[in-house]
Write a structure and sequence with these properties.
Elements (H helix, E strand, L loop, with lengths): L3 E10 L2 E11 L3 E6 L6 H8 L7 E6 L6 H6 E4 L11 H11 L5 H10 L13 H13 L5 E5 L7 H14 L5 E6 L2 H4 L5 E6 L2 E7 H8 L3 H8 L7
Parallel strand pairs: 3-7, 3-8, 5-6, 6-7
Antiparallel strand pairs: 1-2, 1-4, 8-9
Helix pairs in contact: 3-4, 4-5
This protein binds adenosine-5'-triphosphate.
Adenosine-5'-triphosphate (ATP) binds next to helix 1.
Protein name: ABC transporter ATP-binding protein
InterPro entries: AAA+_ATPase, ABC_transporter-like_ATP-bd, ABC_Transporter_VariousFunc, P-loop_NTPase
Pfam families: ABC_tran
Length: 235
């Protein structure tokens, strides 16, 4: 059994089937790219793993347990939207995480905040979107969690900063844990993934070691992504 096991997972919103009989098994010690177009179900899957959504059919196990109090204690989750209060400054957010999570490394968080050149005393309401993303990433990456799940952590940052953030993620990732990152910025990010999951409208299209996938298809993940999800929008 992997650290994450998903068996025959189905999720509907109203009558709409969003995850269709999804099965996955993921082991620790890898950085996993969760890739797929807008609306294909990445955030829904992540929310189920993070224990935010519980009305689904099928089996989900994280470290052998169904999502709940235990799994929340070992899963560090970066949601797509900010959950920090507007008045919070980085120092407040660090104190909050420190109170809330036993596995939170305050020194590491302050170090990441400094490396991102954020002002520890600036309220989040005065930060740009990219600055808020850096702050949240510093907090989430500073938990010594077995499972790290990042939902679109790079959406608001420019390409040069993306690269710096990826390096920061690689430096701070604990090798015994698993990191899952949802993104559609495949070209920018694929260098850090050892494993990729390609999701297409609720169905698993492809899952495997990135080196094996590239070798088998003779293409980069980005090229595969563009081919599989090519759409006919004309401007
Ligand atoms: N709370 C909700 N109520 C109804 N439908 C929802 C809800 N949340 C998501 N959906 C629908 O479920 C589908 C999958 O959404 P989801 O957010 O999981 O996709 P995604 O792959 O994360 O997309 P994106 O890359 O744009 O963030 C979409 O069709 C979306 O409209």
């Amino acid at each position: 059994m992997g650290i994450i096991d998903v068996q025959n997972l189905n999720k509907t919103y109203a009558n709409k089937l969003v995850l269709n009989n999804l099965s996955l098994s993921l082991g620790s010690g890898q950085i996993v790219g969760l890739l797929g177009p807008n609306g294909c179900g990445k955030s829904t899957l992540i929310k189920i793993l993070a224990g935010v959504i519980s009305d689904y059919d099928g089996n989900v196990f994280i470290d052998g347990q169904t999502p709940g109090i235990y799994t929340k204690s070992i899963v560090s989750y970066l949601p797509e939207k900010t959950y920090l209060s507007k008045w919070m400054r980085p120092v407040d957010a660090v104190a909050y995480f420190s109170d809330f999570y036993a596995d939170f490394d305050k020194v590491k968080a302050m170090d990441m905040i400094q490396q991102f050149r954020l002002d520890p005393m600036q309220p989040t309401k005065n930060m740009s979107k990219g600055m808020q993303e850096k702050l949240q990433l510093s907090l989430v990456m500073s938990r010594r969690s077995k499972v790290l799940i990042l939902d679109e952590p790079l959406g608001g940052v420019d390409p040069a900063t993306r690269s710096a953030i990826l390096d920061m993620i690689l430096r701070n990732y604990l090798e015994e844990s698993i990191l899952i990152m949802a993104t559609h910025l495949v070209q920018d990010v694929e260098r850090i993934f050892n494993y990729a999951i390609l999701l297409g409208y609720g169905e698993l299209i492809l899952a495997g070691e990135t080196d094996d996938i590239r070798r088998e298809y003779g293409k980069s993940l980005d090229e595969i992504f563009r081919e599989v999800f090519a759409c006919s929008i004309s401007l």
